[in-house]
Amino acid sequence: MSSSRSVRKLEVVSPVPADIDIANSVEPFHISEIAKDLNLSPNHYDLYGKYKAKVLLPVLDELESSDNGYYVVVGGITPTPLGEGKSTTTVGLCQALGAYLDRKVVTCLRQPSQGPTFGIKGGAAGGGYSQVIPMDEFNLHLTGDIHAITAANNLLAAAIDTRIFHESTQSDKALFNRLCPPNKEGKRKFSDIMFRRLKKLDITKTQPEDLTPEEVKKFARLDIDPNSITWRRVMDVNDRFLRKITVGQGPEEKGMVRETGFDISVASEIMAVLALTTSLTDMRERLGKMVIGNSKAGEPITADDLGVGGALTVLMKDAINPTLMQTLEGTPVLVHAGPFANIAHGNSSIVADKIALKLVGPQGFVVTEAGFGADIGTEKFMNIKCRYSDLRPQCAVIVATIRALKMHGGGPEVVAGKPLDHAYLNENVPLVEAGCVNLARHIINTKAYGVNVVVAVNKFSTDTEAEMNAVMNAAMAAGAFNAVICTHHAHGGKGAVDLGVAVQRACASGNQQLKYLYPLDISIKEKIEAIAKSYGASGVEYTEQAEKQIEMYTKQGFSGLPICMAKTQYSFSHNAAEKGAPSGFILPIRDVRASIGAGFIYPLVGTMSTMPGLPTRPCFYEIDLDTATGKVIGLS
Amino acid sequence: MSSSRSVRKLEVVSPVPADIDIANSVEPFHISEIAKDLNLSPNHYDLYGKYKAKVLLPVLDELESSDNGYYVVVGGITPTPLGEGKSTTTVGLCQALGAYLDRKVVTCLRQPSQGPTFGIKGGAAGGGYSQVIPMDEFNLHLTGDIHAITAANNLLAAAIDTRIFHESTQSDKALFNRLCPPNKEGKRKFSDIMFRRLKKLDITKTQPEDLTPEEVKKFARLDIDPNSITWRRVMDVNDRFLRKITVGQGPEEKGMVRETGFDISVASEIMAVLALTTSLTDMRERLGKMVIGNSKAGEPITADDLGVGGALTVLMKDAINPTLMQTLEGTPVLVHAGPFANIAHGNSSIVADKIALKLVGPQGFVVTEAGFGADIGTEKFMNIKCRYSDLRPQCAVIVATIRALKMHGGGPEVVAGKPLDHAYLNENVPLVEAGCVNLARHIINTKAYGVNVVVAVNKFSTDTEAEMNAVMNAAMAAGAFNAVICTHHAHGGKGAVDLGVAVQRACASGNQQLKYLYPLDISIKEKIEAIAKSYGASGVEYTEQAEKQIEMYTKQGFSGLPICMAKTQYSFSHNAAEKGAPSGFILPIRDVRASIGAGFIYPLVGTMSTMPGLPTRPCFYEIDLDTATGKVIGLS
């Protein structure tokens, strides 16, 4: 357990410089050094430049017999639109564990979406003296995983519309003959992927010419109901004008127009597949069974029915390997899968966590981030991700800020891009105390999974001791294992040593039980209701559309899946304006969708935008390249 | 000039196995070995896995004082839809020069679009025993350049619609205040990029508060005319339903609907910028001055007016570095920029060619490919690319096949996916002789640039000696420097040794003069007419829209740019059905657009689709991943 070679301690400056300046002030280690510290040999990874490497999946098989390290999930209280420093805390905690407490540690983070990077929010590499570096490589392109998802998602989308088009213009026989063209010897053959559809249709024949006309029709005509299509196109750009569009208006598409829209790429089901898959074989099956809509007879139509599940897997074959990077203090980071826990499940990948747990080994620590507040991020971590991974965390961290607690206690609205009200810049203990109801409910909910909860108060320079004491007291009263003040933004790992010690203790005394919020074998509605209750709701109401979808998915045999709520991150309830710990409300379910490949049912709570927009003055106004040095400037 | 270490000679099998089987039968050298052969040190490149590396642009500065090697451009006769093996010949020629003729050589190829790879055509790594390997990495994602172009193109598109939206809902003052928000000290500031717009408006003030209300309006209100927008979104997928769409139909976009469409990513102006740029600084300027449409007053609106030129450069900063790969026989390949010379300029990049010319040094060879027939590929190579690069080829290769010549001589239509007519499988010398008019015109046109022309007959197993002799005779009669038969598809480099020898001789006796087809300082119409004449046209006719655009671009000061014709690759004329060497026709110009950042005017000849479609049974039906080995299967 000796200090690893690449770790360094930072010399910090006060006041804290801009993120990009701190990031640029440190020369990163060559990523092969970071890999070496983890006992990875060069055949275990592919370099992507000097500071990124993809760790190859076979590592997992090689390490199968090794023991896992401790598993820590970082969630948060209900955030303000400014974010409460969850990524920063995740990184700071790991810098403390690795650079100050002499532990093997891997941070598992999600790849940022380029939408927010150029939009309002900026990058997601942490901040201050707790960052992943190089932050421009982390925030832009990385190793192409999100681009691969975009490409795969949109290939499937093109396949859907084009298939409907070709079916509309051809007879059963012509369609079949084109699908199974004669080879050089004039003999028709099924391609391998077609046997998946044949099997689904209970057709056991292996030669195209043996099919009856009825079987030809069943096989070749998917008969997709255009109104049932839930598969949308995606783009990793904040492009609000693509939220609702009409496609097919060209003369060659012969009037086959259809209303549809684009989501941001990280909301793609393929991102969820990437996050939840456990192997190449598993990914192939998940991608193939993604349901894009129904036939007019109500049968689910899959990517494999369209013949494209294999191609999607090929597009995703490198994306399944997590990307190794480093923190400012030289501790290793695995970056994988995507954010947006409000409209997706928003957790980093199972594959990354599993590899990391083996690499750190017993007494080592893997710290993984769950997006937004614990009501959505941690809930999905426990009930979806841990179900598929069969992993159990020993400790859950909940990040809180005085700023957000004041908001929950009744402080004025916090708006990104607008100056903060003085309530947030001056001591106001009663506001903080009132807001702790939000923290308390997150602690109680998280503790119910059977893990030790450590509260990390991410200290800002304006926070006072009295305010902090109020939070610590409230946290302990609500059942936290411990509550600590962190200053990792200003001090790097050194500022999170107390948090590191608390997490170590929580893990050492953590048990191996995970109590899920709901069992899988109850109805879709019962599962939704169990989650709604954890939000404080007294009931759930469904639109007619939601009822219809639930009935259909149940009939199609999908009711045994876990639930991934699409809900605002700004409140326990569906109403972003309801701060604190609302209760007694009725949770409205507007629609229900299914991500069969990823493996969950996906209720939409109220209206949730799946494509952000750009403000009048987006972040990109500050971003440029210093063409003399090749360095990025203005990225935040 | 000794044989380099990584070169190997192939042992070939007959009949020729499937492309992917040949590709998989060879263990590629680690790309650092290939780099070493080129005298590149590890700080000259970034690894992307084991078989790809990005060669870093500063190499060019380091090698500034070195002499260039010989420069060879490969064009073709007017092709059939099956392609005439131009990439295969380019690769085979280089395998011959490197592995058999002991020359330093670099092949410069374009990155394939994923659209055709999953659509009808399949990949573009060459074929048979003349391929770039690993062919799956070449055909899919590569090092992310096309994904970067997609991301940058679509960020700009989102910026356009969103800006129009925000301008429509805000007063001049509100707009200005949002564009220049107060900092922490309450002081408003211009961001650096805003000084580009201020300069364009002749405003020399540096403080926002000093602007008069009129200047505020001029600065903040771009007043883009929605009908003038030529910037479309892109996607690297064959998605015909995106050819014409309506965006902005969501309720939050308040009725601001607009008709637009998607092109395939390689048709983006940003791809053209990548291909034609010469440095980071040059790329920054080109991206910033891309024109997306006009203000209602007729002023061109640029990416920098929208504040996004810097962000686009940041997105493209790695894409400017070409990707090093290898052929089956271990010779180096630089892959950069994109295909589609029909709707774009379709040449590999200036940067790649320049680096390659320095790396091979005097007596070495750089072979670069120009897309489709010489009428469009080579023409654009000479008149656009060489103009911006200031490089001159010593030799131009024209690839011909007996199949295509028979088609030009009056043979039946050749359709992808349908069996070939027997005319193409049996000897028919008169058809070949008749078709040689097409070859002859390409030779005459190419020779007019002042280069030696070598004709490479890409031999198929069904071609007969009499047919080949007919081609050789016709080629020499038309003024070719030499004409040779090649069997590199069946035999690798060994099959192109005669071609290699001919190219060596042609280069040794080649001069350094390049006679452009047209000077830049004549009118747009005169330039279009010079190119039309080289097609065999007796005149040009313009639609009213084309006339209007030419007038506008001339008024805006853009008439000094070269011309990039968007024309079918299947005929010298605008009519794909007119084979051979048509003449006396009137070339119709439907519309004229401008790629000001890339640096050319862009007439549309007839109707050209900028977004391909998928057939009933796309290539993807055969493509899958062998999840046990991780190998791609079915890629062609």
Automatic annotation (TrEMBL), chains A, B:
Protein name: Formate--tetrahydrofolate ligase
Family, per entry: Belongs to the formate--tetrahydrofolate ligase family.
Listed GO biological process terms: 10-formyltetrahydrofolate biosynthetic process; folic acid metabolic process; methionine metabolic process; purine nucleotide biosynthetic process; tetrahydrofolate interconversion
Signal sequence residues: none
Molecular function (Gene Ontology), one example: ATP binding
Annotated organism of origin: Gossypium hirsutum (Upland cotton)
Superkingdom of origin organism: Eukaryota
HAMAP family, per the entry: FTHFS (MF_01543)
Keywords: ATP-binding, Ligase, Nucleotide-binding, One-carbon metabolism
PROSITE patterns the UniProt entry points to: FTHFS_1, FTHFS_2
InterPro entries: Formate_THF_ligase, Formate_THF_ligase_CS, P-loop_NTPase
Enzyme class: ligase
Reactions listed under catalytic activity: (6S)-5,6,7,8-tetrahydrofolate + formate + ATP = (6R)-10-formyltetrahydrofolate + ADP + phosphate
Pathway noted in the entry: One-carbon metabolism; tetrahydrofolate interconversion
Gene name of this polypeptide: LOC107936203
EC number: 6.3.4.3
Cellular component per GO, a single term: cytosol
Complexes and interactors: Homodimer.
